[in-house]
Amino acid sequence: MENQGRLSIIIGVEQDENTIVKVLRQAEKLCPLEIVVVVHGSRDRSLEQVLTYAPTSAMRVYAYPYALGEDVWRAIGAQEAAGDVWLFLEGKQIIAAQQLQPFVRLCYRGTDIALRQSHPFFGRKNSGQDSVQLAKCFLNSLLERGELGSSSMDDLPFAMTREAAVSIGTHHLFVPAAAHLIALQKELRVAHVRTRQKRSAAREAKAAERARAGTKALTDLGDHLEAFSLWQREAK
Amino acid sequence: MDSPTCGQNLVSVIIPTHGARNAERLAHMAKQIAPATEVIIVYASLCSQPADIGCVAEAKVVAAGKHATASECHAIGAQHATGNVLLFLPEEGIFPPASLRKYIAPLQRDYDLVLSAGGRMLTKGRLSTVRCACALLNDLLGQKQLGSASLETAPFSLTRTALEAIGPHKLQVPATALVSAVQKGLAITTVAPVSRERKSSAANQGVAKAKSLVLQEHAKAIQLLLQDQNVRGALPDGERHRILVQVPGLLHLRSVFYQQSREKEGDGWGAKRKERSKRARKRVQSRQKRSH
């Protein structure tokens, strides 16, 4: 198996007691070198579920009694990962192993960052009403990568090589839009992977999107504004 | 110089152009838009020679730089306009005059600025990156109802008061001009765009702006919008403990658990359970029988 000596799976867990075991099972099917789990600010039984889980791969759990804040777990997990290719997953998002493998495979074949393909405006009545999606599209087109649509490092899952992460700076990973900007500025090979979603998963994604209308959406938009400021600073 | 009474009703129509071929027709069309019309034709490739400039009847002809964009032509035209209402047309824009009157009517009510409504984000399955940028800027300006409308897309019109508030020179960068218009509290509305009588040919696209330039201007406009705030536009930071990624993990006040894989688990840490041989299994079984 090509993943055995090379793949680190990094999973962020918060209040995910209902899904984390299923996510771990799918992750294990990839036979990775290691699984790095960052549990933070968990008030439910997520940590207990992770610790009682008997893995077939080596697993390290970093448990923080406080919430790290949006996406900080990515940078923490990246600092601890030992593999050549890193796959980032969320504890609340169950994705089948066969859908995850293409991300990793792209990285083995020379891509630096493999993102989830996203075309937000297809078949929508109120097309273009989501500021975050607009910001993602704008960031890609500003850096002459319009073909990426609204695909972004903001969306999970995505995979990246260790070299790519070092080139970006692992400490930048907690502001995904800024990391995405740096990756495109450094002309890293960024590609996207088409994922098939089941109807139920699509429904869940829509519900999550609706929920994003709150603070998460504002944080994501703020991240993009931070990235634009970074672009402006570099342009000067 | 026009009298103030004349200026109140006067509509200045500003048309950028790259060649002199349709100048007469453009001037004639613009004259029919309103009873009192001042036509300003801005030539992008004309040297300021009086002989050339005076060649179009009933129109004021102004020269712009050879590589001037449509927006730069609009800004130059605005500086020469004397009317109380300014209507900006696209390059070589031949429209039915009656259809352009809808850009003037809202200005006679309470509006200061009338834009052409932006189209869809997707046209024939392709994403319009410029419209995307315009829609994002409008969103950030708190003008979501404008969709992807922008000063980038002519026709658009504004009042003299609006022009003075924005500054005529700012029209050369439409995205920043729109930011200024919103920050000055101007009332903005959109109307459905009109279709041209004749589409401009590829040869007439001299003043068209490069897409990358439009995007860069939008990025600068976003920065202008953020200049009085922090880099995140005062939006939440997701309660991030940013400091943690700069200090070693030992100082993180965290617990670390190392879980070995099932295969390796056995009699002790890292030990591997040995599989019993057939002979050993038989020996155990016979021992058990004897004990019974």
What would you say this structure looks like, in words?
- The complex is a heterodimer of chains A (236) and B (292).
- Chain A is of the alpha/beta class.
- Chain A has one domain (7-235): Spore Coat Polysaccharide Biosynthesis Protein SpsA, Chain A (Alpha-Beta Complex).
- Chain A is 42% helix and 17% strand.
- Chain A contains nine helices and seven strands, in the order βαβαβαβαβαβααβαα.
- Chain A has helices at 20-28, 46-52, 72-80, 97-108, 131-142, 162-168, 176-185, 199-211, 215-235; strands spanning 7-13, 34-40, 58-64, 85-90, 113-116, 158-161, 190-193.
- In chain A, α5 runs parallel beside α9 and α7 packs parallel to α9 (215-235).
- Chain A is globular and about 50 Å long.
- The termini of chain A are far apart.
- In chain A, 53% of the residues are buried.
- With 292 residues, chain B is of the alpha/beta class.
- Chain B has two domains: 4-226, Spore Coat Polysaccharide Biosynthesis Protein SpsA, Chain A; 242-291, no CATH class.
- Helices cover 33% and strands 15% of the residues of chain B.
- Chain B is built from eleven helices and ten strands.
- Chain B has a seven-stranded mixed beta sheet, with helices on both faces.
- In chain B, β6 (122-123) and β7 (126-127) form a beta hairpin.
- Chain B is elongated, with a radius of gyration of 34 Å.
- Classes of the chains: A alpha/beta (236), B alpha/beta (292).
How would you sum up this structure in a few lines?
Chain A is α/β, with parallel strands linked by helices.
Ends distance of chain A? 47 Å
* Total domains of chain A: 1
- Main-sheet strand order of chain A equals 3-2-1-4-6-5-7
What's the domain count of chain B?
A: 2
CATH fold label of chain A: Spore Coat Polysaccharide Biosynthesis Protein SpsA, Chain A
CATH topology of the largest domain in chain B: Spore Coat Polysaccharide Biosynthesis Protein SpsA, Chain A
Beta strand count of chain A: 7
Give me the CATH architecture of chain A, please.
Alpha-Beta Complex
Q: What shape does the CA trace of chain B take?
A: elongated
Portion in beta strands of chain B: 5-15%
Name of the CATH homologous superfamily of the largest domain in chain B: Spore Coat Polysaccharide Biosynthesis Protein SpsA, Chain A
Mean pLDDT of chain B: 81
Topology as H/E string of chain A? EHEHEHEHEHEHHEHH
- Count, helices of chain A: 9
Show the largest interface.
Answer: A-B, 59 and 52 residues
| End-to-end CA span of chain B | 124 Å
- Please report the total strand number of chain B as a whole number: 10
- Sheet of most strands of chain B: 7 strands, mixed
Q: Percent of residues of chain A in beta strands?
A: 15-25%
Element pattern of chain B in H and E: HEHEHEHEHHEEEHEHHEHEH
Envelope shape of chain A: globular
